[in-house]
Amino acid sequence: MVIGIVSKPGENTNEFVIVTPDDTEIKTGEFVYYKGDVEVQNDDGSVVEQEKKIFARVTGREQQRGFPDQFMADPGVSPDAVARKLGISTEGVDLYNITATVIGYYDEKLNDFTNPRIVPKPGTEIRLASDSDLEEYLTEAVPEEGSAFIGDLIHRPPEQTEIHLPIDAFASTHLSVLASTGSGKSYTASVLIEEMMQPDSRAAVLVLDPHGEYGSLKQMEEGEKFQDGDYAPEVQIKRPESIQIRISELSLGDLFSIIDDPSDPQEQVLAEAWNQLQSEEDDYISINDLQNKVEEVGDEKDLESSARALDWRIDKALDRDLFDHSNHLSLSELLEPGQCTVLQLDTMDQRDQQMMVSVLFRKINQERVAHEKGRESELEFPVFGLLEEGHRFAPADGDARSLPVLSTILSEGRKFGVGIGIISQRPSKIDDDVLSQCKTQIIMQIQNPLDQDAVKKGVEDVGEDLLDELPGLTPGQAIIAGDSVNTPFLSRIRNRYTEHDAESLEATKLWQESWKEQQREPDGMAEPEDEEGASNRDQPLD
Ligand SMILES: Nc1ncnc2c1ncn2[C@@H]1O[C@H](COP(=O)(O)OP(=O)(O)OP(=O)(O)O)[C@@H](O)[C@H]1O
């Protein structure tokens, strides 16, 4: 279907302007195409001209001609009615200028768009891109082959298109889901996990869940979509009480950060004691072992009083349930292909959460590096870790134990099969490098100007036209950009197969219920009329 004719080149090199009488089909973000001859290289090296569909994205729209202002002076009378009264034909009155930016033709060999670097000539016919072309070309994913079905295109009718993302791409080059609170971050992340746990991917996923929002993923174990022969995903939900760290799993840096503000001599004693204990190659270090070693080193170095003060700090920092000696975070228990483990950290102090992430991801990274270098390893398969409240673990001010290890993984994890997904409602509070290393971005509604700026800075390739949409997106609508897609686009995230755990509290309902409950208690026994009175308030008054 021809939707308009090219009238002239646009202001920027890649832009052109279309004149169209009808703008109903063509929304900003929509994809159109024209046919043009481009030079392509054959397998034998010869170059031939071929006609290709050259795609472009609609980036702006303005009315060029419409009814005169006088026709709209009276809100009670439509401009059409005024025109009829005056005997003027309304046919073709509305005319729009639509700006489009060339993306290019789809190159089957590259599996990507190639920009021909010329804009179409005035008079060229512009058509709406077909659903099937967009499904095929916008991402590299092949449905059913390790791909994540995430939803459809916003500017097409619901469920008319099916958009798939390649799991291999976002799980290896990292992902961010960024949006204001309540815009659908955890919903979208859960959709991705649902896709990763289906039989054609059977991923090993670890979710760090500081708000306890991912518990309903357990339903995947029974869900029809997730079963295939012997396969059904396993979902382990772990509460803080069952998550422990062995002291031997800490690094010296971890120890410094949990031991409350040690003095320089105390740091010196601790470092020496820790190094000596490490060289003894004992997997198991108790608080007593550490304290004894600290005393020994204090004696050797004439720093007895520092050692004594340090002993007290060690007790305070480590003598807690989090550091259990009998139990520890065994990677083989947490991570298996076909298993999604959710660590619910909601009752855990933020510093401890950061410590947990530091210890866990350091270990995961070490094991994966060992595997890739041919050494014995607990992790012989790639791993994907999803971090809710990502700004807590990789903050811009650098004040988190977990930041160094996450930075390392984000810059090198691709080589070693450790993928990270960062979810955050405060992109401006995330470390810049961490944000820019997440090569697939799912960006949902963002109102805060600081966060919008952080997204603009941290996310390459997303045009201003799409970023301008950010404040107006509704829950579940997202811009998808980066390595997993061939060009950024606007998508509607599909409905979850499992229930969503993180619905907002219905305060008025809970107040009512709680009030009624209190009335029923013995010393405030409710009279039957009270209940009726409450329900009568909902009845219309005669
Ligand atoms: N794709 C979607 N389809 C249908 N409903 C959605 C979708 N995405 C989000 N919602 C609805 O929007 C609301 C907010 O979603 P969600 O809990 O994921 O937000 P959030 O950004 O994670 O919020 P918070 O920062 O508070 O955790 C929920 O009620 C959810 O049901």
From TrEMBL:
Keyword ATP-binding applies: yes
Alphabetized SUPFAM superfamilies for the sequence: P-loop containing nucleoside triphosphate hydrolases (SSF52540)
Domain Helicase HerA central: residue ranges: 150-364
GO molecular function list: 3'-5' DNA helicase activity; 5'-3' DNA helicase activity; ATP binding
Record's compositionally biased regions (Acidic residues): 524-533
Catalytic function, reaction form: ATP + H2O = ADP + phosphate + H(+); Couples ATP hydrolysis with the unwinding of duplex DNA by translocating in the 3'-5' direction
Keywords: ATP-binding, Nucleotide-binding
Stretches with biased composition (Basic and acidic residues): 514-523
Annotated stretches, region: Disordered: 502-542
Similarity comment: family membership: Belongs to the HerA family.
The protein, known as: ATP-binding protein
Source species: Halonotius terrestris
